[in-house]
Fold these 4 entries.
Entry 1:
Amino acid sequence: MTVQTKNMIATFNFTVPTTVKFGCDISKEIGEITKGLGVEKVLCIYDEGIKSSGISNQIIEHLIQEELKVVTFEKVTANPTDSIVAEAAGFARENEIEAIIAIGGGSSIDCAKAVNILLTNPGSIHQYEGRGVVKNQTKPLIAVPTTAGTGSEVTSVTVVTDSKKLRKMVIGGQHCGATIALVDPLLTVGLPPAVTAGTGMDALTHAIEAYISKGASVMTDINALKAIELISGSIYESTVNGTNIDARSNMLLGSLIAGVAFDSAGLGLVHAISHPISSHCGVPHGTANAILLPHVLAFNGGDERVRQRMRDVASSMGLPIHSIDDQEIVKSIVEKVTDLNHKVNIPRLREAGVKKENFTTIAEDALKERSMNFTPRKATKEDIIAILENAY
């Protein structure tokens, strides 16, 4: 018998490590949900911004109502470092905590994931860089995202900055994700416009890079394209009218399913370049991604496979695709992303504090990033420097 293979779906791996509970006011159930895990003492991890917004107090009150013992670590910084993770892990051990609750954006959730790894796995966080290196089961971790950006609440990856080498370590695998994500759009209503814009464009980058990634599959494609549709259609409204709950919900859902997509598909050149930009120049991760995205898309458009995939991206963005060749479609997407950046006030690299003298170091470090394994068009150091010049 002859087996037909032309239209068969390729082999793929797909994982969703986290149970998701999504909805307005779902965060109010955190006390009951945490109690249901069979724990008594929990550590809440967040930053000063979350504390000043009052969100952390709301979460803690719900926990106390269920007679849970709560300790807090409030020193999370943007692009959390190995030293912050080590300090928080030491604090958690001293207090004999049984579960962790991460409240905030990607930095708080990434920090909490890294701390959780160290509570049941020996040594420093440095020795777990890579995928599949974390061997021991971690403690229960509940992620409560307050930004629509990283998707960290549903990924099996944490990113920690090596403070000596000034580079980001990517740590991922079976025991690196959150146990439960409580995804409440109402917690994002108070986000300032600049944070809404930066984190939102970060999520759009996740979705697009996942779709054109070498690691893409039918499962990641479904999530990536829907995320592109939701985010591109709602980011402007959520930025200029932050109380629009429909727009906030679309952004948070888009961010979440973009996280589901890239966790299995991988990312690409935007992230490979943005990581060293954040490490060396202190630019927020989402903002760096947003700045680079149109320029990397233009570069990737030089690949025939990418051009074909871009037709679906354009359709999800509501752009015309009929009677238009692939080159024009790439151009229309680049123009659309550039326009979104302009509308939500994303700066250029020079306005974000990046210096041209950093370009060579950024390019050299970008080539070492794991995301380079998934980018659809191979880039040289000279290609990356040219992209940085265009984004400057």
Entry 2:
Amino acid sequence: MDLGIAGKRALVCASSKGLGLGCAEALAAEGVDLVMNARGSEALEASAQAIRDAYGVDVQTVAIDVTTQDGQAKLIEAAEGVDILVNNAGGPPPGMWSDWDREDFIKALDANMLTPIALMKALMPGMIDKGWGRVVNITSQSVRAPIAVLGLSNSARTGLTGYVAGTARQVAQYGVNINNLLPGIHATDRADALDGGVVKQKGITLDEARAERAATIPARRYGTRAEFGAACAFLCSQQAGFIVGQNLLADGGGTNLTM
């Protein structure tokens, strides 16, 4: 299927590795030029060059911390006029309800709620002016079924989901579609960190922790960045023009819901 987005330009946040990189690769494969962002310049430049070599698209890199005001300003300047925005940020650390203080929640809100909102507010007016745009927010399956040890993520990402629910229905009339893509467990550094916590808690090996978690997923495996990226690219496509304000689970069936 031709997604009809060749020649478009996209900002993909936190795209030096993991799910963000999967989204960048899938968009590049469709002929989309990229602005890629991450905190670390070395991994970011390596990933960007690999995409240039593989797909022949233009890739601009911005190595900053997008949760800071200065970082946001630099990224917004570089991404001015983009047609597609993919918001993404690593999740806050796991823990118990009693572990977190106000500052922990502020950090989670800055990374996983307020930053994507700031980028949407800055970049969607240009999309509205052109009469076409796509925003995909990478959130988490926890916004549909909260995960007890991920209370910080549950809180911040659910707040973003509420913001998108209203905003998406305000801008759809201008050809700008906002949707959320909700990953379950994928083979990324985030999964390694969560599995590492199980290793310490239970005194088992990392392979055993992974096997335990995979057994809880109906697909009996972790997702891949490539298949996640393909789902993101579709939500950014011409064909997704009638999908507005939705929360698409990409979790191998791991979230036990009827709808």
Entry 3:
Amino acid sequence: MHILKNLRRSLLLLPVVLLAGCNTVLMNPSGDIAHQQGRLIVVSTVLMLIIIIPVVALTVLFAWRYRQSNKEAVYSPDWDHSTQLELAIWAAPLLIIIALGAITWISTHTLDPYQPLRRIDAQRAIPADTKPLVVEVVALDWKWLFIYPEQGVATVNELAAPVDRPILFKITASSVMNSFFIPALAGQIYAMPGMETKLNAVINKPGEFEGFSANYSGAGFSGMRFKFHGLNQGDFDQWVAKVKTGKEGELNRALYQKLEVPSEREPVRHYATVAPDLYDAILNRCVDSSKMCMKQMMAIDAEGGLGKPGAFNVATMQSWQPDNINSPKRKYVTAMCTTEE
């Protein structure tokens, strides 16, 4: 009997022991956006528990009160309606749904990832002259590429940002859809080829945080992780200086085409410089200069298409890149378009 009691006590304590080492980063994040999202989870959960807890408690109470051995319980097999009970059953959930709807509506607009930040944290507004740090994010198979256009550098599987400075992430992918997620910073945002999504966020505490893909994307998905460093401004400047001394040299189109070949568990890489038009070429699916960019295709479509007279002319075509008159792109447009001459 003593052994059974100890075993039962151990089983009750087992979940506590297993959860003791968990880092509840979603409930204790270091970024203001993630903090607001965590609070939203708590508020929503509490509102739903207003219904769940009484229902569970009454289920146990009814099972105990109306058990077969309790002869004192009132048995009313013909009872079928109570106005007061109906009001309680329907009014409480309705009020909770209204409250959740209002919270969802407000939070959806307040925490819109495309919307520039309004504050650094709950106590501090963003100064009027603050310029966000722009980071261009590319999800590759199976690694992350981060381009800093202002600093002119790029990294693989490592990200850093100054504390209390707004960050604007511009996010795309090379082949399949992925999901950019740093739990301590903000909620996940999808990365899709040929499209750009955005995330505005801020990190409020220095430290090293985990980043990863939250969307399954193939064999190397489990290793598609990176470290995000929250640094004070001085340390961030030193980090940028360190990246500029990287042995990888310049990240140009040719090197990017080698980098985007699928590979798993890639080490951190630093590129001292980066081609200024690389991210735009990745986004428009034309890193290979022999291919027509998506924005050029859309420009043709907006003019009515190549098959319509006057839709496109040689003068417009010659304003395009590349300048090589013998490129397949230019030969295709020259052959297909109807000129005005």
Entry 4:
Amino acid sequence: MRSVIEGSSTIEFAPMFLLLEIVKLGLSNLRRHKLRSVLTALGIILGVAAVITNASIGEGAKRDALDQIERLGAKNIIIRSMKPPESAQQGGGRGRTGMVARYGLSRATLTLIRQEFPNLDAIVPLKAVGGQILRENLRQTSQAFGVTPDFLEAAQLRISRGRYLTAGDMDEKALVCVLGAELARTMFPFDDPLGKTVRIDAKSLEIVGVLEPVSLAGGAGNMLVGRDMNLDLHLPLSAAEEVFGDVVFRASAGSMSSDNVQVSEIYCVAPTREEVVAYADRIRRVLEVRHPGMTDVTMIVPYQLLDQAERTALTWNLILTAIAGISLLVGGIGIMNIMLASVTERTREIGIRRALGATRRHITLQFLVETGVLSALGGLIGVALGVGVSLLIPWVAENLSGLPLVGDSFGSEVKLPTELSIFPIALAFIVASLTGLVFGLYPAWRAAQQDPIVALRHD
């Protein structure tokens, strides 16, 4: 009885031992031709690395754009006064009074929006004032805005030091201000700005707070805002209207411009993200009535930009992945070519194995093992290379400006963020492994179809 069991066990486990023997033979053949194996797998290695690198760059760019747009406020609808072309100024808009250009949002429009949309969480007006911001011999083109205390939350800003504007400042029309991070650094490179004063044209304002840096600077969000918010100066809206009035004089490049704009921007905050688009459409209809053609006003809806950025990022990811996939295809063709050459080279070996009892299935498995191991190892090396390059790219981008020959061509603000995720890494490895197996089928089939007698006669 025991011998029967032992005999049946031998029969049961024989295929397993045979498979292990085939795997050993395949691996030993790859070890005998190390250089050829590496060169064969090179296409797979570079293809996988390219897929992972492209995916990480695309994902990083997408995440960076989405983060910046998110910081603009996904529930915000930003209405902005915009200087129209001369022809539109003369024929439409609010025209000119003498040499002063009158255009943009008015207080009447602001009042109408407040009446028509009482359910908005906040309606925050901004008013640009002054031509220059000055401190001793330092000067900066004015980005001073009269705002209400609600603007801090509406624009998702944070205080770094001191405080923000208060309802008391509004009531008293106090000449106090809050500086953006970069403006504070520029005007007070070695001093603490709190308690100090700056001038807007001829008016002095006491600094009561400094904002945290706004990371929109230099990015997609900054272009949407239209300025570097780190250079902003905020003062009470009541003081801006009382002290500075509606006319702003600015001198630049030897020319003087004077604009009469009652309200520079209006931040409308919707109750929820889902209602943003509906509110934006309704507000646009109101604006089109008061500003035909909307030549002197524009509207930014970050939520719509967020959706557009996601679609654009998905499109680019697909394009980059398709391009990288071509590398995998080339790698697969390379494996097939090398394995076909290997079949010809090892024809006599195949004949000997067939003569010793190896079946066509055994020969097929042997060659499939070799291609499978090649593609799997190539995939693993490609994953390591792709992850390494993806981690290295942001550091290289940040340090490009310090390179001796090409540094002058890149600014210090150059950034190329990357973000690794499991899905593209796993997908690249699986596709690489399958590519090797698929392209190895034909060489394996060719090897298995060799006639043992003909193969033995092969030189």
